[in-house]
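User: I'm curious whether this sequence folds into something compact or stays loose and floppy. Could you predict its structure so I can see for myself?
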Amino acid sequence: MNKKARAILWFALGLGLLAAVALQADLGRSLQALARAAARPGRLLAAAALVALVHAGLALKWHVLSRLAGAPVRWRQSLRIFGTLVLVGTFTPGRAGELVVPMLMRGGGRLTGVALANRILESTWTLCVGAFAAFVVIGLRRLWMVAVVLALFIAITVVLSRPRLTAAVLAAVRACLRPFSRRRPVAWLLQQEQKHQADIQHFYAANQRLLRPGPLLVFSLVMLAVWLVAVQANTLLIHATVPSDGKAVTFMIVLALTSVSAVAAFISPTPGGLGVSEGAVVVFLAGLGFEKEAFVPFVLLSRLVLYAVVIAFYALSRLLGRTIEPPPDNAPV
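Assistant: Here's the prediction. I'll summarize afterward.
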């Protein structure tokens, strides 16, 4: 099976899972909720504007991190690569496409390092927010699992912030893979490492520059603002689609479900968490005592708004952005 067929298969699987989530509620009731939301588009437009603002904040973060890593990129170049990065990440399993876009767009090892560091930091931030919200909403139950994963991310961050540790880990992985070098996936990995060997020092340098107190503080401040806006966007979508009677959906609950959706997107085998994120949110809310059927229109509308904003953002990046020139061979680390 070629890559295109595999991608279509995973996307179809995600649509199937999303359909399964939709069937958890009465179809007529869901359509009525969506019709009510469409009849009063103010909240929908405001939510879409906030989601667009979230992506603008993430684009700003990407540019700042790129500059802090020493990448000689201008904001229009950053806009172009980030628009592509978000689009590919949204339509690849586990958002894995985010990690290869910089290299494919001639960003070199330095911007690839930025992508990896950004992914690790975003995952760590999401887990921290999720743990905090879970502590407030459900107490200490099962928080130990979050603590274990968070400790793993911290360990990875420490390793990547030290070039010698990173080199040692890569050498150990290379030694473990060498006996299997004739197998196609392993051979491809080793071939890619040899192909990009010249960029590896730039990769190390980007990690070392970013995983320090100053850049981490900048990253945290931008992410704090982004998450507050994202929570407000989800709150507007909930108010537009979910009846106001019954148990109130508080700020902390929306914060928790936002982190649940984000974590599911990171670990899901379907493109951008399609179907998995929605199912995780519905199950999470049901576990808190909410009527899960009432939130099906919300998760469906959230997915539509996300796709609309991501595609529009990519189109804007194509219109206003510029391609990245390949770094010279003698570029300083």
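Summary: Residues 108-138 form the longest helix (31 residues). Residues 45-320 form one domain.
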